Amino acid sequence: MTEALDWWRTATVYQIYVRSFADSNGDGVGDLEGIRSRLDYLKDLGVDAVWLTPFYPSPMVDNGYDVADPRDVDPLFGDLATFDRLLADAHARGIKVTVDVVPNHTSSQHPWFQAALASPPGSPERARYWFRDGKGPDGDEPPNNWQSCFKGPAWTRVADGQWYLHLFTPEQPDLNWSNPEVVADFHRTLRFWLDRGVDGFRIDVAHGMAKPADLPDMDPRAMFNVVEHANYYDPRLNNEGVLELHEGIRRVLDEYPGTAAIGEVWTFDDEQMSQYIAPGRLHLGFNFRLALTEFDADKLRAAIDRSLAAPLSVGAPPTWTLSNHDVWRQVSRYGDGEIGLARARAMALVELALPGVVYLYNGEELGLPNGPLTEEQSTDPGGTSDMQGSRDVARIPLPWSGDMPPFGFTTGQRTWLPMPVEWADRTVEKQEADRSSTLWLYRDALRLRKTHPAMSGDTVSWEDAPPGCFVMRREGGLRCVLNSSDAPVDLPPGEVLLASSQVQDGKLQPNAAAWLV
Ligand code: NOJ
Q1: What is the tens place of the pLDDT at every residue in 315-343?
Q2: Cα separations (Å) of 142 from 91, 135, 152, 340, 515?
Q3: 204: CA distance to ligand 1 center in Å?
Q4: What count of Cα atoms within 13 Å lies in the side-chain half-sphere of residue 108?
Q5: 13 pairs with which residues across the strands?
Q6: What is the enclosing helix (H) or strand (E) of 195?
Q7: Residue 384 in contact with ligand 1 by CB distance below 6 A
Q8: What percentage of the chain has pLDDT greater than the value 90?
Q9: Of 123, 130, 325, 376, which is the most exposed, with the fewest CB atoms less than 10 Å away?
Q10: Does residue 74 carry a pLDDT above 90?
Q11: Is 79 considered catalytic here?
């Protein structure tokens, strides 16, 4: 029983970017019924759970991260009855379902924000958001110097002269979490989905929900190097008050045994991270270190050690992720083409050898690179310098079958982002038929990760390795060897369980990894 309730401690979770996974109604946008029709694919892949990106009614300014009603389904994606069927069918296959929730902000079309606009300064309607008078003689300067995480100031002025805060687009006004009504409404949203049977949540901008009441200026240097962020004063994010909010969320989840929440927490400060995931707070926190580390054995080893420190110190499982819908696909980060793919395959073995929870992003199991997109084709309002341009390059619909776009993604002709013709050899159909494909590498790795006794233990240790390589050992005995050098290296003695490229004469090729026992 306990084991089942603790599923989230060792799960492999597959992130479904709902718009891009599978389309059932021919409109070129993925939907819930499309996901339901592909559940056997996920079962065969071997994932334990899915994370669905927001599918709630939304004007789609930020592809659903601008939520107008958190307790319903946008007609673009289906309806509540379809959601219930998807949930039941996933559960019937042993797949848990977690959903994205967006507590930091609403859509500007949310009835609360519309009411705030229609109400005077100082009204209870405005007190659910951050409305403030401006600075300067006419109040025509923003209340402070905060910048949006996307671009431009974090403040927009309304007709009566007040300003409101938005850490993202102006269509995503930030909620004021010091208002008990905001807290209560979010708990109601959690219960709404928990009562339907979801197994947990991914909490968007979990590090941003609390702001200091006096909204002091930020250090402009905090814009926007996420890794060095902790060096600069930035009251927009990671305020201490946020921990209490997560305690409140945890109390709700604790009423539903076997459910769990992972926070999108952008911090590279170990002490800070450990506070988020300490007992009584978030079950898990995203760790973006692997996604931000280049393909270099020494740097990756350091990133892994650092990633383990915070969760181990508070008894929480570590988490790992190589990509998501906000960053470049790993194949492209590692250099594209054959090299990019070889490295991405190697990194899949590194990630899936690690203890704890792995988050996969849909399409990585097909070795997809970024898609080529022109500026006109991109729908992304984000795209900061930090995110290397439009995030839509990592959101191209998945190629399922056939030789031409839309590759079975939709029964229609058009897809919400164009699919490259070159993906004809990356379809699920082609890769299922090819035992050496990336899809099969993931399937094999996931099966071994789940069933092989050598894959046990909470920590890793490091053994001697040639320059440019590492040998990482799980307590249960599995060795994962990574070769990021430019020459083949001898593998240590042992049986090769799985390798990302062919092992010949006991040698591991450059840009490759292998599992041994
Ligand atoms: C993080 C989400 O992952 C991203 O896609 C979104 O744009 C922002 N939060 C704002 O909700």
Answers
A1: 999 999 999 999 999 999 999 999 999 99
A2: 49, 6, 11, 44, 55
A3: 7
A4: 16
A5: 49, 359
A6: helix 180-196
A7: no
A8: 93
A9: 376
A10: yes
A11: no
199 is catalytic: no
**pLDDT computed for residue 383 by the predictor:** 62
Q: Which ligand 1 atom is at minimum distance from the Cα of 382?
A: 7
Pocket test for ligand 1, best of 65, 387, 391, 392 (most atoms within 8 A of CB): 65
- Confidence band, pLDDT 50/70/90 cuts, at residue 224: low
The alpha carbon of 382 and the centre of ligand 1 are apart by a number of angstroms equal to 8
Q: Whose CA is nearest to atom 2 of ligand 1?
A: 204
CA distances for 460 relative to 352, 389, 470, 479, angstroms:
13, 36, 12, 10
Confidence check: pLDDT of 387 > 60:
no
Q: What is the pLDDT of residues 249-298, one digit of tens each?
A: 999 999 999 999 999 999 989 999 999 999 999 999 999 999 999 999 99
Give residues with Cβ within 8 angstroms of 417, minimum separation 6: 20, 371, 373, 377, 379, 392, 395, 396, 397
Q: Is the CB of 62 under 6 A from ligand 1?
A: yes
Asked if residues 472 and 350 have their Cβ atoms less than 8 Å apart, the reply is yes
For the question of whether the overall pTM of this predicted structure is more than 0.90, the answer is yes
285 lines ligand 1 (CB under 6 A): no
Alpha-carbon span 199 to 203, nearest angstrom: 13
Q: Which of 79, 228, 255, 463 is catalytic?
A: 255
The length of the chain in residues reads 517
Among 110, 168, 226, the mutation site with the greatest number of ligand 1 atoms within 8 A of its Cβ is 168
Mean pLDDT of all residues belonging to the chain: 96
Choose one of 56, 62, 100 to mutate for the ligand 1 pocket test, by most ligand atoms within 8 angstroms of C-beta: 62
CB of 168 sitting under 6 A from ligand 1:
yes
In the chain, the amino acid numbered 18 is: V
Is residue 369 reached through a cis peptide bond, with omega within 30 degrees of 0 on the bond before it?
Answer: no
At 1, the pLDDT band (50, 70, 90 cuts) reads very low
DSSP string, 422-464: GGGGGSHHHHHT-TTSHHHHHHHHHHHHHH-TTS--S-EEEE-
pLDDT for the residue 230: 75
| Residue among 66, 204, 351, 380 flagged as catalytic | 204
Cβ–ligand 1 distance for 205 under 6 Å, the answer yes
